[in-house]
Automatic annotation (TrEMBL):
GO terms for biological process: C4-dicarboxylate transport; transmembrane transport. Coiled coil: none annotated. Residues 1-23 form the signal peptide. It holds the Pfam family DctP. This is C4-dicarboxylate-binding protein DctP. It comes from Geopseudomonas sagittaria. One of its GO terms (cellular component) is outer membrane-bounded periplasmic space. Belongs to the bacterial solute-binding protein 7 family. NCBIfam families: dctP, TRAP_S1. Keywords: Signal, Transport.
Length: 335
């Protein structure tokens, strides 16, 4: 007959107790949500990520812990999408220029001179067409949770850019977007794809001569220190789609998912309200630094940039879809 010695019994009991304690702990351990991004904290996206963390940890105390990794410190922009799909990070907010392998429709946001102002961007993003893009990548495992603004992009270089011909032959850093490559080819400049973390050094060493960014990205990456001129062209948009891994998101307890969704909606409203002021503040900081002249275009000069860049639309309208482009254009005139 099998007999347990007192020692073996004690040992078995303590193992069971340890196992139970561990199971109880993991049942109550908070869900860790890693939110990774590539910009500085004092930017619209950086502030949005921190607000999301704050509200989630306040309202879901003990249930959720949000770890925010800014400045490409966990994943750079070449790797973050892959990491999201692998489940190594749970929320990211890539710029809308970084979705071309996942959704052709999202390329619409890169079309130069598409939106008259940020109010038009708001209207399009809130429209059925804009909202439809958030769920357009579910089959690839990506769920869109909302849009966050950064703002309109400005051209920068070490020579003054008044007209498209001034950009001829210059090397411009672009995000990983074919539309943006074509945009610079349209003014006979040379686009170079480069990850965000490398832009400052690229400009400093002359690997590239110019770039396009909203003021908040220029200032927070100190690009103004290596660019003598900024042309306030407002020629294109740099906004974000906040996305999560579909399987991770659908696997969250329903109450947690519902609350996180509410928080995300609230944070999106706040980010989109603050972004313009943040960019204007950084424009002033650049002026105060006296490193860089900011060029304001006349209407005629700006029209020349628009005429030179707009033919890019034709190249992509098949992929993007004319209905989507019409919906975006309609957002310009709506009140
Ligand atoms: C860029 O690469 O220029 C931007 O996408 C960076 C960002 O996230 O704002």
């Amino acid at each position: 007959m099998f007999k347990l010695t007192a020692k073996a019994l004690a040992c078995a009991l303590s193992l069971t107790i340890a196992g139970l304690a561990q199971a109880a702990e993991s049942a109550t351990a908070p869900i860790v949500i890693k939110f990774s991004h590539v910009v500085a904290e004092h930017t619209p996206k950086g502030q949005g990520a921190l607000l999301f963390k704050q509200l989630a940890e306040e309202r879901l105390a003990g249930k959720v812990k949000v770890e925010v990794y800014p400045n490409s410190s966990l994943f750079g922009d070449g790797k973050e999408m892959e990491a999201l799909l692998l489940g190594d990070v749970h929320i990211i907010a890539p710029s809308l220029a970084k979705f071309e392998h996942y959704s052709k429709g999202v390329q619409i946001f890169d079309l130069p001179f598409l939106f008259d102002d940020m109010a038009a961007v708001d209207r399009f993003q809130a429209s059925p067409a804009g909202q439809g893009l958030l769920s357009s990548m579910e089959d690839k495992g990506i769920t869109g949770l909302g849009y966050w603004h950064n703002g309109l992009k400005q051209l920068s270089a070490n020579k003054p850019l008044y007209e498209p011909k001034d950009a001829r032959g210059l090397k411009f850093r672009v995000q990983a977007s074919q539309v943006l490559e074509e945009q610079f080819k349209a003014v006979r400049a040379n686009p170079r794809k480069m990850s965000f973390a490398e832009v400052y050094q690229g400009l400093q060493t002359g690997v590239v001569n110019g770039a396009e960014n909203p003021y908040s990205n220029i200032y927070s990456q100190k690009m103004h220190e290596v660019q003598k001129y900024i042309t306030e062209s407002n020629h294109g948009l740099l906004d974000y789609m906040v996305i999560t891994n579909t399987k991770f998101w659908n696997g969250l307890p329903e109450d947690v998912r519902g609350e996180l969704r509410k928080i995300m909606d609230e944070v999106s409203i706040e980010v989109n309200k603050q972004a313009e002021a943040l960019n204007q503040g950084d424009k002033q900081r650049i002026l105060d630094a006296k490193t860089t002249e900011i060029i304001t275009l006349t209407d005629e000069q700006r029209a020349k940039w628009r005429d030179a860049m707009k033919p890019v639309w034709k190249k992509f309208e098949g992929e993007i879809g004319t209905d989507l482009i019409k919906a975006a254009e309609a957002a310009n005139s709506a009140n």
